[in-house]
Amino acid sequence: MNFEGIYTPAVTPYTNGTIDKKAFAEVLESLIEAKVHGIIVAGSTGEYYAQTAQERFDLAAHAKEVIGKRLPLIVGTGATRTEDSVEYAKAAKEIGAEAILVSSPPYALPTERENAVHALTIDRAANLPIMLYNYPARMGVMMGDEYFSRVGKSKNVVAIKESSGEMGNLHLLARKFPHISLSCGWDDQALEFFAWGAKSWVCAGSNFLPREHVALYEACVVEKNFDKGRQIMTAMLPLMDVLECGKFVQSIKFGCELNGLKVGEVRAPLRPLNSEEKRTLQTVITTLKRSVAHITSGANYA
Protein backbone atom coordinates (compact mmCIF):
# COMPACT_ATOMS: atom_id res chain seq x y z
CA MET A 1 0.00 0.00 0.00
CA ASN A 2 1.24 3.47 -0.92
CA PHE A 3 0.40 6.25 1.50
CA GLU A 4 -0.19 9.31 -0.65
CA GLY A 5 -2.47 12.26 -0.01
CA ILE A 6 -4.59 13.39 2.92
CA TYR A 7 -5.46 10.82 5.60
CA THR A 8 -8.13 11.91 8.04
CA PRO A 9 -8.18 10.55 11.60
CA ALA A 10 -11.96 10.59 11.91
CA VAL A 11 -13.72 11.98 14.97
CA THR A 12 -16.11 9.76 16.92
CA PRO A 13 -19.63 11.23 17.31
CA TYR A 14 -21.47 10.73 20.60
CA THR A 15 -25.12 11.18 21.56
CA ASN A 16 -25.75 11.23 25.29
CA GLY A 17 -22.33 9.68 25.79
CA THR A 18 -22.97 6.74 23.45
CA ILE A 19 -21.28 6.31 20.07
CA ASP A 20 -23.68 7.49 17.36
CA LYS A 21 -23.11 5.17 14.39
CA LYS A 22 -25.47 7.06 12.10
CA ALA A 23 -23.61 10.32 12.72
CA PHE A 24 -20.30 8.47 12.31
CA ALA A 25 -21.43 7.25 8.88
CA GLU A 26 -22.26 10.85 7.95
CA VAL A 27 -18.76 11.95 8.98
CA LEU A 28 -17.23 9.23 6.81
CA GLU A 29 -19.45 10.08 3.83
CA SER A 30 -18.50 13.75 4.12
CA LEU A 31 -14.82 12.83 3.93
CA ILE A 32 -15.33 10.55 0.95
CA GLU A 33 -17.29 13.28 -0.84
CA ALA A 34 -14.51 15.79 -0.11
CA LYS A 35 -11.98 13.45 -1.78
CA VAL A 36 -9.56 12.81 1.05
CA HIS A 37 -7.30 9.87 0.28
CA GLY A 38 -7.79 7.62 3.30
CA ILE A 39 -9.50 7.39 6.69
CA ILE A 40 -8.07 6.40 10.07
CA VAL A 41 -10.19 5.16 12.96
CA ALA A 42 -9.01 4.66 16.57
CA GLY A 43 -6.53 7.51 16.36
CA SER A 44 -6.02 10.17 19.02
CA THR A 45 -8.57 12.44 17.32
CA GLY A 46 -11.08 9.59 17.45
CA GLU A 47 -10.67 9.45 21.25
CA TYR A 48 -9.68 5.78 21.27
CA TYR A 49 -8.27 6.21 24.77
CA ALA A 50 -11.76 6.97 26.12
CA GLN A 51 -13.42 3.93 24.52
CA THR A 52 -13.88 0.33 25.60
CA ALA A 53 -12.28 -2.46 23.61
CA GLN A 54 -15.68 -3.54 22.28
CA GLU A 55 -16.50 -0.01 21.18
CA ARG A 56 -13.25 0.10 19.24
CA PHE A 57 -13.91 -3.25 17.57
CA ASP A 58 -17.46 -2.18 16.64
CA LEU A 59 -16.44 1.27 15.40
CA ALA A 60 -13.76 -0.11 13.08
CA ALA A 61 -16.15 -2.72 11.69
CA HIS A 62 -18.83 -0.08 11.11
CA ALA A 63 -16.31 2.17 9.35
CA LYS A 64 -15.40 -0.64 6.97
CA GLU A 65 -19.08 -1.34 6.25
CA VAL A 66 -19.66 2.31 5.36
CA ILE A 67 -16.45 2.90 3.39
CA GLY A 68 -16.25 -0.41 1.59
CA LYS A 69 -13.57 -0.20 -1.08
CA ARG A 70 -14.03 3.48 -1.80
CA LEU A 71 -11.06 4.58 0.35
CA PRO A 72 -8.34 2.82 2.34
CA LEU A 73 -9.22 2.26 6.01
CA ILE A 74 -6.39 2.34 8.55
CA VAL A 75 -7.16 1.09 12.06
CA GLY A 76 -5.27 2.26 15.14
CA THR A 77 -3.87 -0.40 17.47
CA GLY A 78 -2.77 1.90 20.30
CA ALA A 79 -2.76 0.35 23.79
CA THR A 80 -0.43 0.03 26.75
CA ARG A 81 -0.40 -3.78 26.68
CA THR A 82 1.11 -5.47 23.63
CA GLU A 83 -1.54 -8.18 23.94
CA ASP A 84 -4.31 -5.61 23.52
CA SER A 85 -2.66 -4.02 20.49
CA VAL A 86 -2.37 -7.48 18.95
CA GLU A 87 -6.12 -8.03 19.37
CA TYR A 88 -6.92 -4.68 17.70
CA ALA A 89 -4.58 -5.57 14.84
CA LYS A 90 -6.13 -9.02 14.36
CA ALA A 91 -9.62 -7.50 14.38
CA ALA A 92 -8.50 -4.98 11.72
CA LYS A 93 -7.36 -7.88 9.55
CA GLU A 94 -10.68 -9.68 10.02
CA ILE A 95 -12.79 -6.71 8.87
CA GLY A 96 -10.62 -6.15 5.78
CA ALA A 97 -8.82 -2.96 6.80
CA GLU A 98 -6.12 -1.94 4.36
CA ALA A 99 -3.52 -1.06 7.02
CA ILE A 100 -2.92 -0.54 10.73
CA LEU A 101 -1.48 2.34 12.73
CA VAL A 102 1.15 1.24 15.27
CA SER A 103 2.26 3.58 18.05
CA SER A 104 4.45 3.24 21.12
CA PRO A 105 2.62 1.92 24.20
CA PRO A 106 1.77 4.92 26.44
CA TYR A 107 3.02 5.19 30.03
CA ALA A 108 5.18 2.05 29.88
CA LEU A 109 8.35 3.89 28.68
CA PRO A 110 9.93 0.98 26.76
CA THR A 111 13.48 1.14 25.44
CA GLU A 112 13.86 1.42 21.68
CA ARG A 113 14.54 -2.33 21.47
CA GLU A 114 11.49 -3.15 23.63
CA ASN A 115 9.36 -0.79 21.58
CA ALA A 116 10.55 -2.46 18.37
CA VAL A 117 9.62 -5.89 19.73
CA HIS A 118 6.18 -4.46 20.58
CA ALA A 119 5.69 -3.26 16.99
CA LEU A 120 7.00 -6.45 15.38
CA THR A 121 4.74 -8.59 17.58
CA ILE A 122 1.76 -6.60 16.29
CA ASP A 123 3.11 -6.97 12.77
CA ARG A 124 3.29 -10.77 13.01
CA ALA A 125 -0.26 -10.96 14.34
CA ALA A 126 -1.85 -9.04 11.45
CA ASN A 127 0.54 -9.15 8.47
CA LEU A 128 -0.92 -5.88 7.18
CA PRO A 129 0.77 -2.74 5.87
CA ILE A 130 1.83 -0.59 8.83
CA MET A 131 1.99 3.14 9.34
CA LEU A 132 4.08 3.78 12.45
CA TYR A 133 2.96 6.63 14.71
CA ASN A 134 5.73 8.48 16.54
CA TYR A 135 4.17 10.80 19.12
CA PRO A 136 6.51 11.07 22.12
CA ALA A 137 4.56 13.95 23.70
CA ARG A 138 1.72 11.50 24.40
CA MET A 139 3.54 8.18 24.53
CA GLY A 140 6.58 9.21 26.56
CA VAL A 141 9.24 7.71 24.28
CA MET A 142 10.77 8.60 20.93
CA MET A 143 11.06 6.25 18.00
CA GLY A 144 14.69 6.70 16.96
CA ASP A 145 17.58 5.21 15.00
CA GLU A 146 17.71 1.86 16.82
CA TYR A 147 13.93 1.44 16.62
CA PHE A 148 13.78 2.20 12.89
CA SER A 149 16.75 -0.09 12.20
CA ARG A 150 14.84 -2.98 13.76
CA VAL A 151 11.26 -2.42 12.57
CA GLY A 152 12.35 -1.14 9.17
CA LYS A 153 13.40 -4.66 8.23
CA SER A 154 9.75 -5.72 8.02
CA LYS A 155 8.24 -5.45 4.55
CA ASN A 156 4.98 -4.37 6.20
CA VAL A 157 6.44 -1.19 7.73
CA VAL A 158 5.78 1.12 4.82
CA ALA A 159 5.12 4.54 6.36
CA ILE A 160 5.38 6.66 9.48
CA LYS A 161 3.25 9.44 10.88
CA GLU A 162 6.08 11.48 12.39
CA SER A 163 4.62 13.60 15.19
CA SER A 164 7.64 14.32 17.36
CA GLY A 165 8.01 17.91 16.21
CA GLU A 166 11.77 17.25 16.08
CA MET A 167 13.18 18.25 12.73
CA GLY A 168 16.19 16.04 13.38
CA ASN A 169 13.98 12.96 13.36
CA LEU A 170 12.47 14.05 10.04
CA HIS A 171 16.00 14.37 8.63
CA LEU A 172 17.01 10.97 10.06
CA LEU A 173 14.05 9.25 8.42
CA ALA A 174 14.46 11.01 5.08
CA ARG A 175 18.19 10.30 4.84
CA LYS A 176 18.70 6.92 6.52
CA PHE A 177 15.32 5.19 6.18
CA PRO A 178 13.91 6.37 2.82
CA HIS A 179 12.01 3.08 2.39
CA ILE A 180 9.69 4.17 5.25
CA SER A 181 7.43 6.70 3.57
CA LEU A 182 7.14 9.98 5.46
CA SER A 183 3.74 11.27 6.52
CA CYS A 184 3.40 14.64 8.19
CA GLY A 185 2.06 14.33 11.72
CA TRP A 186 3.03 17.78 12.99
CA ASP A 187 0.70 20.17 11.22
CA ASP A 188 2.70 23.40 11.25
CA GLN A 189 5.64 21.53 9.67
CA ALA A 190 3.64 20.25 6.69
CA LEU A 191 5.55 22.39 4.20
CA GLU A 192 8.89 21.10 5.54
CA PHE A 193 7.69 17.50 5.38
CA PHE A 194 6.66 17.90 1.75
CA ALA A 195 10.02 19.53 0.96
CA TRP A 196 11.75 16.46 2.43
CA GLY A 197 9.75 14.09 0.26
CA ALA A 198 6.65 13.29 2.31
CA LYS A 199 3.74 12.32 0.10
CA SER A 200 1.02 12.18 2.76
CA TRP A 201 -0.33 14.13 5.71
CA VAL A 202 -2.37 12.74 8.60
CA CYS A 203 -4.26 15.84 9.68
CA ALA A 204 -7.13 16.09 12.14
CA GLY A 205 -8.20 19.44 10.71
CA SER A 206 -9.25 17.67 7.52
CA ASN A 207 -12.30 16.43 9.44
CA PHE A 208 -13.84 19.84 8.78
CA LEU A 209 -11.49 21.50 6.27
CA PRO A 210 -10.70 18.59 3.94
CA ARG A 211 -10.51 20.60 0.73
CA GLU A 212 -8.09 23.13 2.19
CA HIS A 213 -5.76 20.38 3.41
CA VAL A 214 -5.99 18.63 0.05
CA ALA A 215 -5.12 21.96 -1.61
CA LEU A 216 -1.82 22.19 0.28
CA TYR A 217 -0.95 18.58 -0.53
CA GLU A 218 -1.73 19.10 -4.22
CA ALA A 219 0.25 22.35 -4.41
CA CYS A 220 3.39 20.82 -2.87
CA VAL A 221 3.30 17.17 -3.96
CA VAL A 222 1.28 17.08 -7.18
CA GLU A 223 2.02 20.51 -8.66
CA LYS A 224 5.40 20.93 -6.90
CA ASN A 225 4.54 24.60 -6.55
CA PHE A 226 6.03 25.56 -3.21
CA ASP A 227 5.33 29.26 -3.75
CA LYS A 228 1.64 28.42 -3.81
CA GLY A 229 2.17 25.97 -0.96
CA ARG A 230 3.72 28.67 1.21
CA GLN A 231 0.74 30.93 0.62
CA ILE A 232 -1.72 28.20 1.59
CA MET A 233 0.39 27.31 4.63
CA THR A 234 0.48 30.95 5.69
CA ALA A 235 -3.32 31.00 5.59
CA MET A 236 -3.52 27.80 7.64
CA LEU A 237 -1.04 28.63 10.41
CA PRO A 238 -3.50 30.66 12.53
CA LEU A 239 -5.75 27.59 12.72
CA MET A 240 -2.83 25.41 13.75
CA ASP A 241 -1.96 27.88 16.50
CA VAL A 242 -5.51 27.70 17.85
CA LEU A 243 -5.62 23.90 17.68
CA GLU A 244 -2.48 23.64 19.80
CA CYS A 245 -3.88 25.73 22.66
CA GLY A 246 -4.79 22.69 24.75
CA LYS A 247 -8.27 21.75 23.51
CA PHE A 248 -7.39 19.92 20.31
CA VAL A 249 -10.15 17.31 19.93
CA GLN A 250 -12.77 19.75 21.22
CA SER A 251 -11.76 22.23 18.51
CA ILE A 252 -11.85 19.59 15.78
CA LYS A 253 -15.35 18.57 16.85
CA PHE A 254 -16.56 22.17 16.93
CA GLY A 255 -15.22 22.63 13.40
CA CYS A 256 -17.28 19.61 12.35
CA GLU A 257 -20.36 21.12 14.00
CA LEU A 258 -19.85 24.31 11.98
CA ASN A 259 -20.06 22.11 8.86
CA GLY A 260 -23.39 20.68 10.01
CA LEU A 261 -22.02 17.38 11.28
CA LYS A 262 -23.60 16.35 14.58
CA VAL A 263 -20.61 14.87 16.37
CA GLY A 264 -21.51 15.71 19.97
CA GLU A 265 -19.14 16.55 22.78
CA VAL A 266 -15.89 14.92 23.84
CA ARG A 267 -15.76 12.21 26.48
CA ALA A 268 -14.40 12.77 29.98
CA PRO A 269 -11.94 13.77 31.22
CA LEU A 270 -12.04 16.37 28.43
CA ARG A 271 -14.51 19.26 28.54
CA PRO A 272 -16.06 21.26 25.65
CA LEU A 273 -14.99 24.66 24.38
CA ASN A 274 -16.40 27.75 26.04
CA SER A 275 -18.22 30.49 24.11
CA GLU A 276 -15.13 32.68 23.65
CA GLU A 277 -13.07 29.76 22.36
CA LYS A 278 -15.80 28.90 19.88
CA ARG A 279 -15.99 32.48 18.59
CA THR A 280 -12.22 32.65 18.12
CA LEU A 281 -12.11 29.36 16.25
CA GLN A 282 -15.05 30.27 14.03
CA THR A 283 -13.36 33.55 13.02
CA VAL A 284 -10.10 31.78 12.21
CA ILE A 285 -11.88 29.14 10.12
CA THR A 286 -13.86 31.72 8.15
CA THR A 287 -10.72 33.70 7.32
CA LEU A 288 -8.81 30.55 6.37
CA LYS A 289 -11.50 29.34 3.98
CA ARG A 290 -11.67 32.72 2.27
CA SER A 291 -7.89 32.98 1.93
CA VAL A 292 -7.36 29.47 0.56
CA ALA A 293 -10.26 29.88 -1.89
CA HIS A 294 -8.60 33.04 -3.20
CA ILE A 295 -5.22 31.31 -3.58
CA THR A 296 -6.59 28.19 -5.28
CA SER A 297 -8.75 30.23 -7.63
CA GLY A 298 -5.61 31.22 -9.44
CA ALA A 299 -5.98 34.90 -8.65
CA ASN A 300 -2.42 35.03 -7.35
CA TYR A 301 -1.03 33.37 -10.44
CA ALA A 302 -2.65 35.35 -13.22
Structure commentary:
There is one protein chain. The protein has an eight-stranded parallel beta barrel with strand order 1-4-5-6-7-8-9-10, surrounded by six helices. Strands 2-3 form a two-stranded antiparallel ribbon. 49% of the residues lie in helices and 13% in strands. The chain is α/β, with parallel strands linked by helices and 302 residues long. 48% of the residues are buried. Helix 2 (53-67) runs parallel beside helix 3 (82-95). The chain has a single domain (5-223), classed as TIM Barrel (Alpha-Beta Barrel). The protein has helices at 21-33, 53-67, 82-95, 112-126, 136-139, 145-151, 167-176, 190-195, 210-222, 226-243, 248-258, 275-296; strands at residues 5-9, 14-15, 18-19, 38-41, 73-76, 99-103, 130-134, 157-162, 181-184, 200-202. The chain starts with a strand and ends in a 6-residue tail after the last helix. The model has no long low-confidence stretch (mean pLDDT 97). The protein is globular and about 50 Å long. The longest helix is centred in the last third of the chain and has 22 residues, at 275-296. The protein is built from twelve helices and ten strands.
